Amino acid sequence: MTRSGGLFMKLLLGIGIMFGIMWVVSAFVPRSFSQETLTYFDRAFLDKSTRRANLSYVSNGLQSIVTLLALFMFANRGHKSSTLLGIQLSRQASPSGAFWVGVALALQTAVLLTLVSLPFRMYNGYYLEKTFGLSRLTISGWLVELLKSSLLNFFIYAIAGGLAAFLLARFPGTWPYLLTVLLFFGSIFFAYLYPSVIAPMFDEFAPLEDPVLLQDVQELAANAGMKVDKVLVMEASAKTARANAYFTGLGRAKQVVLYDTLLANHSVEEVRLVLAHELGHWKYGHIMRGISVSAAGTLIVAMLFSLVSGPVPGRLSIEMLREVFLSLVLFAVLTSYVATPVASFLSRRNEIQADVFSLNVTGDPDSFIAAMIGLAKANLGDVQPPRFIRWFAWTHPATVERITLGEQWKSGP
Ligand SMILES: [Zn+2]
Questions:
Q1: pLDDT digit string (tens) for 177-228?
Q2: Phi then psi for 286, rounded to 5 degrees?
Q3: Which of 133, 215, 355, 364 has its CA 20 to 30 A from that of 117?
Q4: How far away, in angstroms, is 329 Cα from ligand 1 center?
């Protein structure tokens, strides 16, 4: 790492910590709700949802500050030890040796980040969910879920880390391009596997059987000139009171998933609107678009890293590789955290496109608005979040903005 590279890294850390502080501060700024929000939601709901949201914003802010600092210290500790171990400096990393160094370092980093974030995740993901009546899991059930997802993540990070270290050692000049290509195809592979291999590790799925809704799916798809063959119902009710739906997979593995809580507690018209929204993601290929965007992000991060760290030496010793690898991990985590608003903006754009699609294909803005209200109530959503939170992290437009979209559609162009 060059001197200016080190400074750049500290600057990124500073911005990241500032964002963390902004999360916390946002929770303490008094809310003022728009007339529209007050028209659609009563005070009791707004008070309760704001209280829950603010507590989670404080936890999220502290979590990012602590995590970024821990990673920064961990990566820099590597620097010091590498200069002390002068003997090892001459030992050149063989490509297969590099792979295993990458696996080990990626695992160490992943375990560190998991442990550091654990108290915040317990507070946010278990305690708050339970206190506000959203979660139906027991603490042991929740821990099992966490363990399963952590192990899966460790496995993925280990492979990605091993391959990244291999590329650094074997192709010091062209690794940014190769890494991008690798992650691009890796993501495609993962998106194919997700519905049939990954998702069933966590939840049970069954084909949608409701004849009315099946008829709806066929009509909606026909209206949009699409062929939709897979709509599944996920047994979410055992774990959560939340209602949701999502679109996943690529190519033949594409599918729409509806929570059983959505079907149980919401009107057929509302479910139809949610379905139409997910078909919008299907129609516009948003999964593939997301993978392409993250590939572009990978390339930018890798090239920026080459720029600030200086060229990777042709003959990397194992200790040098450790240093370069940990700097790269730190750099990737910091830049992706600092660039979160860009990712959120792009995601919101896709969501608006899917919302407009759902309105066009159903021609039913009243049910669209009803669905937005129903989902916000089921999920105790922050319907009009603080400006910073919305800008930084909102992957969907705020509920009140989506309601406005429905009203605008209704009043016509
Ligand atoms: Zn969506």
A1: 999 999 999 999 999 999 999 999 999 999 999 898 889 888 888 888 888 8
A2: -70, -25
A3: 133
A4: 30
381-399 pLDDT tens trace: 999 999 999 999 999 999 9
Task: Write down the H helix ranges in 224-317.
Answer: 260-265, 268-283, 286-309
26 CA → ligand 1 middle, Å: 25
* Residue 136 pLDDT greater than 80, yes or no: yes
Q: Three-class SS of residue 79?
A: helix
Residues sharing a CB contact under 8 Å with residue 316, sequence separation 6 or more, in sequence order: 92, 93, 98, 168, 169, 172, 324
Provide mean pLDDT across the span 21-26: 98
| DSSP secondary structure letter of residue 317 | B
How far does the centroid of ligand 1 lie from the alpha carbon of residue 95, in Å? 42
Compute the distance from residue 351 Cα to the ligand 1 centre, in Å.
5
Spatial separation of the C-alpha atoms in residues 329 and 337, rounded to whole Å: 12
Give the contacts of 270 (CB within 8 A, at least 6 positions apart).
367, 370, 371, 374
Q: Which is nearest to 396 in space by CA: 408, 382, 406?
A: 382
Q: 397 CA to middle of ligand 1, Å?
A: 10
Q: How far is the CA of 354 from the centre of ligand 1 (A)?
A: 6
Ligand 1 centroid–CA 277 distance in Å is 6
